Amino acid sequence: MSKISMSNATPALIANTTVHDLVPAQGGAPWRIFLHVPSGPVPEAGWPVLYMTDGNAVIGTAVDAMRAQAFYPTGTNVGWGVIVAIGYPVDGAYDPLRRSWDLGPPPGKTYPPFYEGTSEVRTGGAGKFLAFIEDELKPWVASRVTVDASRHALYGHSFGGLFALYALFARPSSFQTWIAASPAIYWEDRVIDRFLEAFEAAIPDGLAATMILSAGEYETEKLAQFQIGAEDEEKRLKQKKVTRTDAFARAMAQRLDALPGVRASFELHAGENHMSILPVTVNRAVQAAFAVRRDAALC
């Protein structure tokens, strides 16, 4: 049997992806930016770009989903594009404290610490986070990569899905395609509704926005088989009546789809729960952002 020498092991890197810690212009903690640029020739119009929240958790999945499909565009309808995943300088998949602030719509609230001896949890920084993306991150990307300004997409999951909705309502021209996976619409007594109502009252002329909302089969009132009879079954069922992820997302899609300049849809993913839906919807974001035939991408 062959022997493997651990001393000769090398890190497994994400293809054509670089990592950059960007400090905002006004100072403060940096965001970790994962930038994937395809190795092929730049399209005449520039690269389409997919921006993603929770970058540490999604970058590997997004890159590999695109690489697996973009080699066969006539069979997959997926082409090549630039991926910009916004995360944090941490080793884990998430920075719960910072993402709570960045992704929560204003005005926000203050909550007890996640863990004893740590800082209080604050929400409400979505406006500042969106301003960073629009005013600092996008120009930074454009200074390094030739991009197609007419093909920018934004993906977010859970709190990130809530942020995607907020971004559409607050700056509807910032992206053309929006993917809100398992959005936390219920959050803080549906604070997102105040931004939705303002958006409905002043939809920009010429708006052409595509919004994909989604939820997993086990984000409905239905429990997964492994959850039935578990110690937290009663607590989980009670929380479902509060979050109502599928019902709220479905209703939001119907409401948005009735607006001029907005095409919205809802997808229910079989067999998925709130966390297992992540790679499924990352792939859907890749398909939507980098569609070769965009008129058929959501059919």
From TrEMBL:
Entry-linked InterPro entries: AB_hydrolase_fold, Esterase-like, Siderophore_Hydrolase_D
Pfam families named among the record's database cross-references: Esterase
Span of the signal peptide: none
Keyword Transmembrane helix found: no
GO molecular function: hydrolase activity, acting on ester bonds
Record key words, sorted: Hydrolase
Origin superkingdom: Bacteria
Keyword Hydrolase: yes
Recorded family membership: Belongs to the esterase D family.
Protein name, as recorded: Alpha/beta hydrolase
High-level lineage: Bacteria, Pseudomonadati, Pseudomonadota, Alphaproteobacteria, Hyphomicrobiales
